[in-house]
């Protein structure tokens, strides 16, 4: 359940189990001896989805379809005591750092030699590379540091070795993830080392695309932009959740950056990496957000013309500093504000996509659906961004790159034909 960071945890666990068990990821059937649910505990909707999943499998256990149900991950890290009391059908709950304990329950010793390996659940041509655990930020609305703890970076040599192993498995695109990529290295090396890590990863033979997710705006390491502009295999793509633009809201959110510096940062990114695709997320309905502050956020979206944008409505989370603030904005108003920004973004996305008609882009093929081959350009991350729907008389190969000419555009998708294989 939840984010790609959880997915990597599941893949590592599956590799540890593989030599002793038949392991299936997200099976459609309910006939396994053992079910392990890796939960998300980030926001209310994600928590509810995790709880519903646990209840469904608990019912299957009651009827004898399943012998054991184990729960791990963020939700059980955060609410282990409460869950244990409320859900006695679950055999055991494990937190985010309890891999060894879970394996012992399954009568397996942790194989340290396999820690750099995973049982991939993504299409074989792309994978996520988690470069750090936890977070040292103290954003007022976020419970992740309470769940995952402080930032712990993986050594550069370990990450390079893991990346090389993934490339040997056929991976062509690596998506770097952490709660905050830009903080990478501060604990291990006492300085930000993301740019150095990118240099080493970019040198790996056969690695065609490197993509950056989850960066942080305050004290953004500008050398990262230089490295991005320098290497063709580092996608001109950056995921950077800005959350808001009003300085008072940003101060209350404890984002360590104001509205003017946020605008300056976006301008620098576009100047230093021409053609960059910026993905961001925003929060509307934060406690005390006035109509004027919301209108400022709307103007910022209209001016910035982000290539990719998502909006969350504020969700109060226990034990965060914002939880003490009065959640004064109604659900209806929050949803209305979210819809207004997404309607604005729809127009922006349509304009950006229409400007691509007639141009040719390097595109990777992810899958086939109906009459279309589904691909992505370097400006799009899997599952969350735009896709290119391609018509071709010839069979295309999954995970291969093609030059695709854009023939038609919709608000969030492109259509094209093959110009050439790469």
Keywords:
6-stranded parallel β-sheet; 5-stranded mixed beta barrel; Rossmann fold; 422 residues; pyruvate-formate lyase- activating enzyme; OB fold (Dihydrolipoamide Acetyltransferase, E2P); 13 helices
Plain-language structure description:
The chain has 422 residues and is α/β, with parallel strands linked by helices. The protein folds into three domains: 108 residues, Methylthiotransferase, N-terminal domain (Rossmann fold, 3-Layer(aba) Sandwich); 241 residues, Alpha-Beta Horseshoe (pyruvate-formate lyase- activating enzyme); 62 residues, Beta Barrel (OB fold (Dihydrolipoamide Acetyltransferase, E2P)), CATH 2.40.50. It has 13 helices and 16 strands. The strands form four sheets. The protein has a six-stranded parallel beta sheet with strand order 4-7-8-9-10-11. A five-stranded mixed barrel has the order 12-13-14-16-15. Strand 8, helix 9 and strand 9 form a beta-alpha-beta unit. Helix 12 packs parallel to helix 13. The protein is globular, with a radius of gyration of 22 Å. It starts with a helix and ends with a strand.
